[in-house]
Description:
Radius of gyration: 22 Å
Structural class: mainly alpha
Oligomer: single chain
Strand content: under 5%
Helix content: over 70%
Distance between the termini: 52 Å
Order of helices and strands: HHHHH
Amino acid sequence: MSHSVTIRTQTVTASSSTIVINTGYLKSWGGILKFLQLALGIVCVGIIGNEFNTYPSRTTPECFFLVITITFMINTFILLLSCLMSLSTASIISKTIYELLYHSIAFGLLLAASLTLMVHINNNRRYNYELLLGASICGLVNTGFYLFSTILALRTYRGF
């Protein structure tokens, strides 16, 4: 019994200049946490940046807080943007150790910067005490978000 089989191959090429945005990523826990980290980072940079603009003579804890907050705000923005602009990036990056290292380092440094600023402004109550206290509290809340992201990254990396 021999059968005759016909195989057809078809090559389809499509070129498109549309930009696909992975809006589903913002509905995941990782996307929500990154968005909240970015929003609180913007608030912290806005507050402390305004203080630098208003009162140019700043102390080391305020400079440390500004540098750490700007660093992780920019990096979180780039990470969030890359996950939104590529459909495969969100699933690939979360399985690597990069997110675990990034979020754990961000947690540690932002915790140190926020606590240092809070202790400093509590010891030296001067102009705009409430604003700087608000910035350090926002930094501590953001630290909590980075802690949750670290736990989520650990669970994803280990495959739990």
